[in-house]
């Protein structure tokens, strides 16, 4: 990752509270998942795009110690600070929308019926294929701006709405250009020009994988009835692993098809969704190194059962939470809103929700030594909340609570017109 803030010093002072996941391990599970350090009346000092120090205001004088050259101060009164949020599962590269289907679902059509009738994912594939690379790059940048205003400073995004060589590779490039970590979702759906999933995979693995492996960090597959079965998923993921990609799976969204055993067998980084996971899957995931990524906005948006988060956490699984931002099953880019759902629907504590969308999400993306904590040496990515208590990030349901977003020690976004906007002193 680059250090855009090189050479600058930024001091955020007089924060009402600062909260960060405890320790240095990643991913965290068990009691560590809910362990958050909270500092009242706090400061954070950023230097060269990194966190130099943080602590109580009374310790600030000794922390400053050097010349004040290039010191910019933000007044944090009434603000609380948490680490920049990490969205480890989005489909932010798409054109068009599915607002018509949204209305049809309200009238009773199911997500699977729309998909089987050639709508759903395939309707976004048509729009994305005809958009062109420049429009796709604009779309990802626009979506990235929405995420940033909600406090996301690191995001992953998947391809998967191209499903041809040109559009899949253009999608991966657009994601990288917008600063995202790219995942090749080459096995999202079977496009209509192929007779079946096997024939499509022959093409994707021969024609797209070699270049996708240079652009993406990981590969992902939709393992589900009507998409790819377990043998097809194994074939796809094995080839992707041999090409050097990390592995992710969309699994147990509607039905259990063996995603958790396959993820463990292949050493995947994560298995995502888990709304349909039963007791055996919970036990196996908890005993493994695979992170379970929970997507409660998707369950809410499709009016599905929530994933068994409490049981997973109590069994000792490492869990992350993410938006699943996409036009069909979760048109939601806000990790604070997802954190509200994590507390109210998944029954995580605010501290567990914070770890799940910072350090554990960073672990899924392989960047947990850089981001996900406010700790000395980490990238200076910080969210300033318009709140006297850090737990407002989950408590303020759908609230406009992000006052400013710091990325690499620079103010990347601030709600300037609002009363509580941080005041620049120099
Ligand atoms: O994670 N389930 C598969 N893929 C996405 C939805 C994509 C879409 O509906 O466009 C998901 O929910
Ligand atoms: Fe998804």
Topology at a glance:
Elements: E1 9-21, E2 36-47, E3 50-56, H1 60-64, E4 71-75, E5 80-83, E6 85-87, H2 99-106, H3 111-116, H4 121-129, H5 133-149, E7 152-158, H6 165-177, E8 181-187, H7 197-215, E9 218-222, H8 230-242, E10 246-251, H9 259-266, E11 270-273, H10 279-286, E12 291-294, H11 296-301, H12 309-315, E13 319-321, H13 335-344, H14 350-356, H15 359-364, E14 382-385, H16 392-395, E15 402-407, E16 410-414
Helix pairs in contact: 5-6, 6-7, 7-8, 10-12
Describe the structure.
Helix content is 34%, strand content 22%. The protein is built from 16 helices and 16 strands. The radius of gyration is 21 Å and the shape is globular. Mean pLDDT is 94; it is low at 417-421. Bound molecules: N-(iminomethyl)-L-glutamic acid and fe (iii) ion.
Notable traits:
single chain; about 425 residues; alpha/beta; eight-stranded mixed β-sheet; eight-stranded parallel β-sheet; binds N-(iminomethyl)-L-glutamic acid; binds fe (iii) ion
